[in-house]
Amino acid sequence: MKPYSLSQLDDELRRLIPDFDVVHSSAEAALHVDGGANPPHLPDGVSEDDVRRYLLAPHYRGTHSEVCHRAVWMLHDLGFCNDEIAEILKDMPWLPKRYRNRLSTEIKRSLSKPRPVCCATISSAVPLPLNKQCAITLASCPQLSDAFMRTLERYGNYAGLPVSNKILDTSRVIESVSKTDTQLSVQFPCGVGKSTWAVVHIATSAGQGELYIMVVQNRETVFHAANQLRAIMPPDDVGVYVGWNSEECVSISGKPHDFKDCLRDDNQSACRTCDGRDKCNYHRSRSQLGRNVVVMTRESFLVLCEKGCDFSRRRIICDEALLTFVDEAFSADELDTLHRLFTRYGYDNRLSNLLKSLFPSLSFNAFSGAGRIPDGHIHWCELSKVWDGEIVSRIIRFVKAAGDSLLQSEALVYRFLLYFRTAAMCGASYAYTYDGKILRVKKDRLDLRNFTACRSMMVLDATAALSLSEFAPTTCIYTCPDLDIYAKQGFAKFYVAVGNPTKTRRVKNIEAGLELMQVHGSEIFAAGPVMLPLNRDCDDAIAHVETGITQCASRHGLSVQIRKISRGLMRGTNAMRDCTSAFMAAAGFFTSIEDIALHACLRQRRDLPWSELRNADGSPRMHHGRFTNSVAQDIYMRKAITELYQGIYRSAIRDGRNVSVVLAVPDAGWLLPLWQLMRFTVVDAAHANPQTVQMFTGLSRLVNMSAGATVTKRDAAACLGYPGVDGWKDHKDMLNGLLAQFFQINHHGLVRKELS
Amino acid sequence: MNTFDLVIMVTGASNEDYVGLALGSAKNRYCSRLHQLNDDVLYGSKILDANCWFCGSVLDGKGCKAINCLWTKSIILDVDYGKHGHKRQSPFPDCQSAMDHVYSQTLQPHIIWHTGHGIQLAFLLDENISFSDAHKTALYEKHKRGLNKIFRGDSTCSREHLFRMPCSMNIKPGCPPVRGEILRWEVPQ
To answer: Across chain B, how many H-helices and E-strands are there?
Structure first.
């Protein structure tokens, strides 16, 4: 940072303080604190109406003046000036009557007082979808076209499956929404036939001249989908694009090549002399990229985007959530090496200053390399401002020129190059943090909000509402409640260990989980194996849990088979589908404070001080088990709930069987987004406070009521652990916040809304 | 980055210049040449194990009053937090919220140090502000008031004001002793 000049300070202060010339003392200044200097900086996708709606049902407790104090600070932090705050607050039903005539004075007084410990924040209660949700009914969708029906029949003949009502209804709905927008997301339950629709739709439309990219989860699925497509449309129109695979390369060439030996554009590529190249899917991929329909993995799609591949004539259908975030870490020594290499030829200023441009807060010295001073911020940068195609060619030229002298660092340079490679159309950005030893970077490879380099894009994702990727503001997440009857999901019984699913709380969560297993063992162990998701670094916990579960089962006179699964491998595996119970309380679904912080930085698109997210001792900055930073809390919840859902869905529930799940969640609000994805009931919860236990079980009873059922406010409050005549009145705000999503609340009572 | 460096950076003093200090109590003020302070800090005189303050301006060596102040090279603010150790109510409940407020501003201080019951912020200037120049002195004081307003600091606008020596002990009756620390060091290379 450069020192300030007096004139610079003068300009800045005049900009920041409208009445700069009449500031006299700090005591006076405290009373004039005003957010009006800046326009409201509402989070993306949040309108002023959202703020009003949020304030109408605040999710926090306290006296009216405390609620008012928090609301004033929240609006102040969002950038509203005092007059605007008064305008918003005057309509709030909870505003104390005594404030109404002196609201402006009260706002000033509130702002002159210390900031509330935990400011009210938008979306602090449950994670809301980042894009608007739109429910459509089956009846509103037109019938399927004859061409689609003919292709569907061909598909049925190929797969040996009859054309069921499930496939027909699902196809009708998706076919209808697919014609509405250029970018959309479809959130239908797993097993209703989204993938079948995708294959049949592509085969039908490709015959009419449309060009498609089909994005699927992994390499196996690529070949499976390509075979399906080739069976129902001209095979030559279907191409497969896959990346380099070491097993395939060795099996074809018989030599242990590296990916660098097989670069497609390299004159010295080993593929040029390889006899088996005609059988190599990687080698043939390039030529198949021009076909009418190309099937590829999510990773290949993102890599092609980063290479600047032109998809403007193609429609893209992603049969999987499009996760665009990728992490990388460079140690200080690796940074030293990179800095030394890139400054080797001083004449190339662009390359010499590359690291300084990428990581402006780090200090690089010609002799000592990267500084070892920890950074107090997480920084956000737009990659397109630093990186372009020219840099890639410069680095490749540099690598080639260096020859053998670069052998030791070659892998590092390639890792760096492949990680930061991007094209302008991607709108990529990244966040980084440096602790003096390791530089952690998280990159958003594709800015889906501004991605227009394709004709249309459709994402079929069962958990779209919890997705961390945000689409353009006009994009809808479509749901269809009519299709829920086809969801091949069983019913889950939850046994809740109340606590954050973090590694630090693991021992407590395990103890609480085992306690629940002891009480309800006969129900939990009765049917089949127990799935046990675990983190990699918890060898001590594995033995503890296994022994505990075995002992619990033997006490109930049962034997149990335990199936362990690594938390990182939970997505996309079918190996656990015979497990009828799951012990999920042993897994920490909190990734890491760095991961959350980098994600929060990318979401907010600004630098974040570590002090917002972490205490001085390195622990997450939480208040009552929640991050005080609402964005970090939202990301934590999204990640944890998505993983919980994915984990539960690995079990026999996906085959329509009922399962028992022991899991750790910190508060009852976490169950609400999960309820949108699957049906469950909470049988019991482990917590010292019986009221908390009742909150979990009661909430589950209430949300499982059938549509149209009514309940009085007093009964609803009693069900959630607040009995008595004033149970509802005393906890109105909190109860409203919890139940408003599921109930129509009026002065007579609560009416369960239609399932959605 | 240490106490001695910080005093040089914020006052713009060189080895033979006088800096103002106070030890034990703020009333025990004295002047010391900068190199003497360095020797004190480095060689054992336990200056940092007691209450210790320094003056934000370079002195003429004849006293520690406003008239003895020659120049300074920074604007230093004192931002309090918490209930302990303060007579008046602090604008922030804890250190984190004070730091959050600082970090949320577009104008950022070069140095931040924690004093035990508050934080102090130094905005380095690109030139020495000589107090013999009335125009610059007026500007300096006005800017200091402006920054105090933004950062919610207390009224430390006088040039002879004492600030806690970074890394020294903060010993106040009724509160446990706390050692200060430097939280941010973003000085120009």
So the answer is: 4, 10
Judge whether A2 is closer than 8 Å to chain B, CB to CB: yes
Reading the block at residue B15, the tokens are 């080895």
What's the rounded Cα separation, in Å, for the pair A211 and A454? 11
Cα A175 from Cα A148, distance rounded (Å): 9
- How many CB pairs below 8 A link A and B? 104
Q: How many helices (H) and strands (E) does chain A have?
A: 27, 26
Q: Which residue of B has its CA nearest to A78?
A: B104
Here the contacts of A708-716 (C-beta below 8 Å, separation 24 or greater) are A708/A751, A708/A752, A709/A751, A709/A752, A710/A749, A710/A750, A710/A751, A710/A752, A711/A743, A711/A749, A711/A750, A711/A752, A712/A749, A712/A750, A713/A745, A713/A749, A713/A750, A716/A743, A716/A749, A716/A750
- Distance (Å, whole) CA B71 – CA A87: 48
Tokens standing for A605? 């698109």
pLDDT digits (tens, 9 = 90+) for A87-125: 888 878 778 778 888 888 888 888 766 656 544 333 344
Q: Is A62 helix (H, G, I), strand (E, B) or coil?
A: coil
Q: At what angle do helices A281-288 and A246-253 cross, to 10 degrees?
A: 110
**Residues A134, A478 contacting (CB under 8 angstroms):** yes
Query: pLDDT tens digit string along A657-699?
Result: 888 999 998 888 888 888 877 888 888 888 888 888 898 999 8
* Residues of A with Cβ-Cβ distance to B161 under 8 angstroms: none
Q: What is the pLDDT of residue A147?
A: 92
Task: Report the Cα–Cα distance between both ends of chain B, in Å, rounded.
Answer: 12
CA distance to partner chain B, nearest, from residue A657 (Å): 50
- What pLDDT sits at residue B14? 87
Quote the pTM value.
0.64
Provide CB contacts within 8 A for A414, sequence distance 6+: A260, A399
Residue B82: alpha-carbon gap to chain centroid? 19
Give the end-to-end CA distance of chain A in Å, rounded to a whole number.
Answer: 53
* Closest alpha carbon to A388 in A415, A428, A437: A428
Residue in chain B nearest A365 by alpha carbon: B189
Q: How far, in Å, are A366, A519, A644 from residue A544 at the CA level?
A: 52, 18, 21
Q: Is the dihedral of CA A50, A51, A52, A56 positive or negative?
A: positive
- Identify any residues that bridge with A556 across adjacent strands, giving them in sequence order: none
Q: Which residues of A600-617 are buried (b: 16+ CB within 10 A; e: fewer)?
A: bbbbbeeebbbbbbbeee
Please identify every stretch of chain A with a pLDDT value under 70, giving residue numbers as ranges.
18-47, 50, 53-54, 56-63, 77-79, 112-129, 345-347, 487-489, 526, 571-572, 755-756
Characterise A436 by phi-psi region: left (phi > 0), alpha (psi -120 to 50), beta (else).
left
Phi first, then psi: give them for residue A8, nearest 5 degrees. Answer: -65, -45
Kindly report, residue by residue over B29-71, the tens digit of the pLDDT. 888 888 887 776 655 556 777 888 899 999 988 888 888 899 9
* Chain B nearest C-alpha distance from A609 (Å): 7
H-helix segments, A233-309: 246-253, 281-288, 298-306
CB nearest A611 (choices: B100, B108, B154): B100
The answer to whether the beta carbons of residues A148 and A103 sit under 8 Å apart is no
pLDDT at A304: 92
Chain B segment 132-171 residues within 8 A of A by beta carbon are 136, 139-140, 142-143, 145-150, 152-155
Compute the distance between CA of residue A677 and CA of residue A667 in angstroms, rounded to an integer.
Answer: 18
Q: What is the ipTM of this complex?
A: 0.91
Which chain A residues in 609-628 lie under 8 Å from chain B, judged by CB atoms? 609, 611-612, 615-616, 621
CB count within 10 Å of CB A645 equals 18
pLDDT digits (tens, 9 = 90+) for A617-632: 788 888 777 787 778 8
Interface with chain A: mutation pick from B102, B145, B152, highest number of A CBs within 10 Å: B145
